[in-house]
Amino acid sequence: MTTTSPIRLSHSPCVTLGPVRLAGRAALRARLDQLLQDAATGHGTALQLTGEPGIGKTALLGYATSRATGFGVLRVHGVASERELPYAGLHILCLQMLDHLRGLEDAQRQALTAAVGLAAGPAPDRFLVSLATLNLLTRVAERQPLLCVVDDAHWLDQATAQVLAFVARRAGQGSLLLLLARRDQPRLTDFDGVARVHVGPLPNADARGLLVDAAPSRVDAAVLERILTEAQGNPVAIAEALEGVTAGDLAGGYAIPAPPSEPTGFDSEYLERALRLPADAGRLLLAAAADPTGDPTLLWRAAARLGIPPEASGSLESAGLLVFGPLVRFAWPRLRSHYYAAASAQQRRTIHGVLAQATLDDLDADRRAWHQALAASGFDEAVSDRLERSAPAAQARGGVCARAAFLERSTLLTPDAGRRADRAIAAAAAKYQAGAPETAEQLLSIAEMAPPDDVRRASAALQRARIAFSTRPDERVHKCLLDAARQIEAHAPALAREAYLEAIVAAMVAADPGTGLSLSDIARAARAAVPSRSDRPADLLLDGLATRLLDGYVASIPPLTKALAAFEAAEPGAGTARWLCLASCVAVDLWDGRSWRRLTARHARLAADYELAEASCAPAYPALADFYHGRPAAAALMGSVKSPADGGAAPSLMHPTLLLAAWRGRRIEFEELLPKARESAGAQPAGMAGSASSLASAVLHNSAGRYQNAVFAALPPAESGQLGICGWALAELVEAAVRNAQPETAARALERLSHATNATGTDWGLGVQATCRALVAEDQAAETLYLEGIDRLARAGIAAHLGRAQLLYGEWLRRRNRRIDARG
Asked: Long-range contacts of range 635-643, CB-CB < 8 Å, 24 or more positions apart?
């Protein structure tokens, strides 16, 4: 069936072909941009894009469509099943222009409508049909530039192909741009004489970037090269290599993923060809499928151990299944997983055992251990121990997902129940870090089946509480974390202190008294625990937050300032990195802009380096900090990162994308983000996510002059006491209350804001305070306060609040008819 996207030409639509993922192709994109520009100025043309299946022709058509602003867009998609139906494709094209048929000369209209089945009549003259189509498209293009996109033109019926070729060769006048995409088929001569560009393989650098971006985790270097070699620069082949692949499958390349579906089409044809191979060639093909690196030296060492003669490779090459070169590659990439899946479990174990023997232990001990694990048919302590010892090497090669895969397999092969439980807890922690909480919980269930052990039980409880916090943070999680911290305190004091810190964060996220357990209760438990004598940043942070919760904001400034300095000076490490997001929010709470910028930037770097759960959303935080410091170009980063409102795992004190949209006055973008933010807040509107959403709403309402709404939005976060949110919300509340004639509300908010900013003594805090005091001051004092606020905020380099202060001062000057002074 031939398909299309309907258009309404009178409204100059720009119809896209869906999400356009286009890697590289800079020259082709520039050419398409130029053709669109030419057509828009009355210099239309036609162009064929030819190339092999999956090479990116459709993506290029989608790119052109997405760039066709102000154009009418027609789309026709050839389908093989209608290839024998004359004018089937032309019928779809004409259906999109029915309103314009009446403008054709009678003979042409009759010929065209008869050809496409819209009117009865004798078989039309093909020249008249072609002429009518050309005139119809030209007339439409007179009203607005017209882009006609024809995908899979090789499947068009011949009559339609001839008509479109006629149009293409005469598209040089007017504002018609005709783009056709088809496979390379030398015998397809209908479009001879139409300009043609061949879409070749992606350059290696672009293909590599596409693969790395699309992969769910880090890809082992050898596996990456093998996938690129097999894909031969074909974007769809790269995508198919990752289809159905989990992070664990790709991590280090240690696993061969199962095929996504039963073989059909080319998959079935290649698999049938492989299953008819002689026995030796079949075993060699299975060995190639079981080795994800494509290393020919390893393959031939394995072949020698299997007694496979070198001639077996000839059968595979002559059958068009394998290509032997610097890397051994499958001629049809999906054959690897299909053939591996078709083998019996015993055949796969035998092959992996031989590959383990053929792998050099001194160079690839981790790969050897993994092949040994896949060759095992039951418990095997020796292999389990080797996997556990190889886990760090696996992580260096394939990231935390590889380490988690090794530890999980090690657990499953361990015969001793106690040892298996210990390994299960370690594997669960790795799986949790790798973003696989369900598998982590299954491993904890294995640990809990072991004989009773206090240390093991406490460790498992802590890990379960951590998983609960990342997957379903509600008012019960902080109690679970507190209980786990108390259980583990006697066995691992340093770990217990981190658990107390996690409990505080979880309680801030929930901010719900439903359990009867307050933040102060957790802080008292943390303070009563084994005291810290270390200068570890996390310990200092816990001490500072406990002081804030029990002794008040002013008392917490010295210990929290010391903690921030420790985080800035600490050596890089996963233990430091996981608390940098919280530390950066403390910096905001202390009105310390310098530390805020440095800590958020460090968090983004280390979250990626150590593959923390929040790595996808971490870049949003330095982007927001840069925006506040007068670097709005950093906001461009925000479109490519994951917002915490979209499910980021970081303990978020604010949703950067939502707040940035509010500051920039982007109401539509804000309204799209707000439901997601509220959904992440769930039943905890006073928690971090809910308070951050309300703060952003207050900013947007203030900027739009909706001051009553701004007061309503700012009150909850201003009363919340949340780190990094309360102070900003108080400033918004002062302005909104003053503008909405609520002086008592403004005075109370200003008093609380002044209490904090006087204690910190930073130019940022004092500058915001001076600006807020100017809003409520008598005329004589207001100007002095505005100038003080502007001066302090300029010194602090906080451009966002500086701009607000300047705007408020300018408005104040205009209200006093000092228009010349106000212009600055």
From this structure: 635/660, 635/664, 641/616, 641/617, 642/616, 642/617, 643/617, 643/673, 643/676
Please state, as a whole number, how many other Cβ atoms lie within 10 Å of the Cβ of residue 740. Answer: 17
d(CA 823, CA 814): 9
pLDDT digits (tens, 9 = 90+) for 722-766: 888 999 999 999 999 999 999 999 999 999 999 999 999 999 999
pLDDT tens per residue across span 639-675: 444 443 333 334 343 478 888 888 888 888 888 888 8
pLDDT 10s digits, 265-312: 777 888 899 999 999 999 999 999 998 888 999 999 999 999 999 899
Core vs surface per residue 123-145: b (16+ CB within 10 A) or e:
ebebebbbbbbbbbbbbbbeebb
Give the closest residue to 145 by CA, choosing from 77, 4, 45.
45
- Spans of the chain below 50 pLDDT: 1-20, 636-654
Q: DSSP string of 12-30?
A: ------S-----S-HHHHH
- 323 by DSSP, 3-state: which? strand
Radius of gyration of the chain (CA): 33
What's the pTM?
Answer: 0.73
Q: What is the DSSP letter of 326?
A: S
- What end-to-end distance do the CA atoms of the chain give, in Å? 65
pLDDT number for residue 534 = 74
Mutual orientation of helices 688-703 and 493-510 as an angle, nearest 10°? 40
Distance CA(437)–CA(394), nearest Å, equals 20
Strand order in the sheet with 43-50: 72-77, 146-151, 174-182, 43-50, 196-198
Q: What are phi and psi of 151, to 5 degrees?
A: -100, 150
Query: How far, in Å, CA of 711 to CA of 733, rounded?
Result: 6
